[in-house]
Amino acid sequence: MAKYLLLKHYRGAPSAVNDVPMDKWAPEEITAHIKYMNDFAARLEKTGEFVDGQALAPEGEWVRYDGEGRPPVTDGPFAETKDLIAGWMIIDVDSRDRAVELAGELSAAPGAGGKPIHEWLEVRPFLTEMPTITE
């Protein structure tokens, strides 16, 4: 089994087919979307493939260390032009092909008008061993 992170980008990914921003959706469309996501996770829990997942708030900032005795440096809150990750899901599956299959299915969550979003999801494997450095 291998773990993969599925990232749902709200901004910063290629445009989705049904590219209506969530803040323009009707309340029942948001409810249907969340239900789809929860049902998807519940189904994967039954197969043992679901590890965890969360939606993220749009607020956030970059933080980095700035030296001993100095406060951390921040960049944020994020400007409208920056990437925004809307949420993530960790899955534990037999293969990359299965991770891609599940990401494709998750991409079909309903959006505006009840139609599938067909959004792009980023699929990232967990690092299982340190890369080998060669000269």
UniProtKB/TrEMBL annotation:
Belongs to the YciI family. Residues 17-107 form the YCII-related domain. This is Uncharacterized conserved protein. PANTHER family: BLL7171 PROTEIN, BLL7171 PROTEIN-RELATED. Signal peptide: none annotated. It comes from the Bacteria. Gene3D superfamilies: Dimeric alpha+beta barrel. It comes from Paractinoplanes atraurantiacus.
